[in-house]
């Protein structure tokens, strides 16, 4: 097959219908069965009706601790005229004991008074009192479970009680996963060279298979060699019910998935009108479905979710679990390409007037957008996006309880926020999510009332004060409180040993010095511009002034990885990555909180954590922090 230099743009609904019809035609949707022990059947699906083989209980059983008696022997018993039952006219029983045929009632031990010549009772028994009759729970040949029932712990107990120790269930589909790519290395590899990538997609896909009730079978990494990939495909296709090939789904010079599927079987689709995941491939080899997923993890999991997941449930004869969604307001505008269905991962939180959705990074290679997200938004094909504040459904993969117990912090980044988030979760089960958009971005979010609090550190060059003038200007009629989190050292982050001997801001203008900045609107950028102006230095003379990062750690990482020579940030970030630091100023980093939006208990616990010795010790250990006054309300608008 000649190399293809383009891919299709098939609408998702059309591709899914074509795919599922093809799976039916090759027999994939006809489940296979197997017989297994009930003890091993947790979460398996019954393939046919299961009937009880034994009644339960299979004998008359005592329902209480006490004595078994003949009811007729107790008639006439009252408090004034107790009835005494002789020892040979009763038998002691415990709950579950067999009640002999000559007795027809059980009296609770609490109602029995023992005497020398027997027992006395003051209340008559009625026939079959406190006795479980044969078959009270189930009778032999009762239908226990219908076909296509998922086995849980309760079902296991019922089956074993009914003398059913083996059952016929739907066989779990076996899914082969082949990771391809010359650049891939196994996790745990050390001293990775530039260009090498840890192979993690196959592990993620294996977990997704297990969530669908399938058994994953991972192949070792296969290099970008057509013959090697073809050999691996032919080996795996004999062992599995479905095959997933990771990477090689596009039309690059080393992308062979589509070529091999077309050569060995039937290529149905190459290219979907979705984002991420456009290069997805659907086909079959030897009447077994084959899916080619892109190499980026976000794309790979989305293609699996949209196409492999429904196929695996169909194979087991059951419907996909119903998706749970909530209506959320979008916190910021989301433009989209009108020609595709776009899936955007979001965080969610509850504010008094609505649930809000906060879009995460949309890059297909950003694995953390999956780990951090609470769900996703689908922007349908033909729609150019969503406006800020627009209501839209969010499909959840995290619990509503977690979302309701979330504090949102939008604004400037600081490592102390991460520690605060960990301690809130550890001690109180409260989640703190943060979006690093800079101090001004945080204030604007407060103004729009779409966040509980904002991390800010904006210097007023006129007064030398932090934050106050900005809050009074942008939040004039808002109830806010300004809480001190930390004081911290800001300065220049340089390589270990400071090889370029950078000692002050003037050195940034030297010809061979590469700088990385923080984004516009961040407090760090405001501080830098203030210091440059104070020393009469021009930003246009600094190479890299417009090269921006969004967190202090990202700046430090850029220096550590030789993407630049120096960056502006806090001492703690330099310390974490074993870099050197040139101090320039100490600044105040504060939290502006809207009491009308945050849960009062959450507010109280937030302050409690900030004032705790554990928080103070962990932040202090990072270096470059002064925690005097931390947790105190410095200023209130009312």
Explain this structure.
The chain is an alpha+beta fold. The protein contains 16 helices and 38 strands. The strands form 11 sheets. Strands 31, 32, 33, 34, 35, 36, 37 and 38 form an 8-stranded mixed β-sheet that branches. The chain has a 6-stranded mixed β-sheet with strand order 16-13-17-21-20-18, sandwiched between helices. A 5-stranded mixed barrel has the order 22-25-24-26-28. α9 packs across α15. The mean pLDDT is 94.
CA distance, first residue to last residue: 74 Å
Beta-strand content bin: 25-35%
Per CATH, the superfamily of the largest domain is: Periplasmic binding protein-like II
Calculate the mean pLDDT score and round it: 94
Ranges where pLDDT stays below 50 over 5 or more residues in a row are none
Largest sheet: 8 strands, mixed
Shape: globular
Brief synopsis:
The protein has five domains: 12-30 and 173-315, 3-Layer(aba) Sandwich (Molybdenum Cofactor Biosythetic Enzyme, Chain A); 33-56 and 137-170, Molybdopterin biosynthesis moea protein, domain 2; 61-132, Beta Complex (Molybdopterin biosynthesis moeA protein, domain 3), CATH 2.170.190; 324-404, MoeA, C-terminal, domain IV (Beta-clip, Beta Barrel); 439-636, Periplasmic binding protein-like II (D-Maltodextrin-Binding Protein, domain 2).
Question: Top keywords for this entry?
Answer:
six-stranded mixed beta sheet; alpha+beta; Molybdopterin biosynthesis moea protein, domain 2; Molybdenum Cofactor Biosythetic Enzyme, Chain A; 638 residues; eight-stranded mixed beta sheet; 25% helix; 38 strands; 5 domains; Molybdopterin biosynthesis moeA protein, domain 3
